[in-house]
Amino acid sequence: MKIDKFLTPYRIESGKHFRLKDHDPADTHGLKSEFKKEASELLAKGVQRLSVLQDILAAQDRWGLLLIFQAMDAAGKDGTIKHVMSGVNPQGVSVHSFKAPSSEELDHDFLWRTMKCVPERGHIGIFNRSYYEEVLVVRVHREILANEKLPKSLVTRQIWRERFEDINNFERYLTRNGIAILKFFLHVSKKEQKRRFMERLDKVDKNWKFSAADVRERQFWADYQDSYEDMIGHTASKHAPWYVVPADNKWFTRMVVAAAVVHSLETMDLKYPKVNAEQKAELEKARTQLKAE
Ligand code: ATP
Ligand code: MG
After folding, report:
1. Which ligand is closest to the CA of 128, given by its number?
2. Which helix (H) or strand (E) holds 183?
3. How far is residue 39 CA from its own chain's centroid?
4. Which runs of E-coded beta strand occur in 5-156?
5. Nearest ligand 1 atom, CA 78
6. Which of 56, 40, 119, 48 is nearest to 88 (CA)?
7. Which residues line ion ligand 2, judged by CB < 5 Å?
8. I want to staple 122 with a disulfide (CB 3.0 to 4.6 A). Which of 44, 61, 242, 270 is the partner?
9. 245 C-alpha vs ligand 1 centroid, how far in Å?
10. What's the CA-to-centroid distance between 260 and ligand 2, angstroms?
11. Is residue 27 within 8 Å of 262, Cβ to Cβ?
12. At what angle do helices 250-266 and 77-84 cross, to 10 degrees?
């Protein structure tokens, strides 16, 4: 119950009145930075719980879980994925990063490349960027759309609304098949992004993370924010909610994401499979056999 209440302000299940400006990137749920140490202990507990739940998820082999991460550069996608998933069994998790599509991928419909990476039952799949780029970067830079090899008559002013509809249908289809979906938008401020870029320039061991392209994309900040707002407004649903996660404080971002993943697994009613009478007899037989050795 408590975890549900904590998550409520960040979970968007209906996009009807969604406004990005109602969400503060620096929000920490009223927790001061002195709470940082406690937050990392809480995160460790969350990671531990996640590991137990993942074990049952795999044993039960009914549900799958898809986690989608979207964000501006330097919002902390990579670090969040690394920290939150640090305790889970690598055999049950896969991470897929989606970059600009290859020519093979451009020869297919836009969901094709992601569809192949949807997690199987019992597994957790992570999308580091996803088909949502098709209504973000592609919308901000129309020349990308022009390169997508779509028949001309299909590219109309309705295309973004149509893509939202297709995404919604796809997510409904997956959830109806037992693949639960959580979507995270790591919401960083423009000011904090600049600070992190500067840090990448200043610190030698962070230099490798710096990319001039990221600074170029920053010039389209307002267009991206508009696209994110419209996207969340059109694709938030009860079965595949968006979490708008404040991302100016990394300790808080990680706490919210870990809580959301644990919460979603807790509500799946996961149970280890029960063995039936016949299987029990088999176990007893094996025990007798081993003892007799
Ligand atoms: P990091 O920078 O931490 O390695 P990243 O996710 O930013 O992570 P990059 O290789 O820098 O990885 O960026 C991937 C780029 O691919 C992004 O600019 C993104 O917008 C772009 N991209 C992803 N999907 C598509 C798509 N469907 N069409 C066009 N561009 C896309
Ligand atoms: Mg990048």
Report:
1. 1
2. strand 179-187
3. 21
4. 11-12, 64-71, 93-97, 124-128
5. 3
6. 48
7. 73
8. 61
9. 20
10. 25
11. no
12. 50
Q: 74, 193 in Cβ contact below 8 A?
A: yes
Q: What is the mean pLDDT of residues 250-270?
A: 95
* CA–CA distance, 160 with 230 (Å, rounded to integer): 9
Q: Are strands 242-246 and 11-12 parallel, antiparallel or unpaired?
A: antiparallel
The helix/strand count (H/E) of the chain reads as 13, 6
Query: Can you tell me the distance from the alpha carbon of 288 to that of 293, in angstroms, rounded to the nearest whole number?
Result: 9
Residue 31 has phi, psi (to 5 degrees) of -85, 135
Percent of the chain with pLDDT over 70: 100
Q: How far apart are CA 187 and CA 82, in angstroms?
A: 18
Question: pLDDT tens digits for 133-158?
Answer: 999 999 999 999 999 999 999 999 99
Distance 34 CA to ligand 1 centre (A): 35
228 is written with which tokens? 């994110």
Mutate to test the pocket of ligand 1, among 96, 99, 219 (most ligand atoms within 8 A of CB): 99
CB 149 within 8 A of CB 107: yes
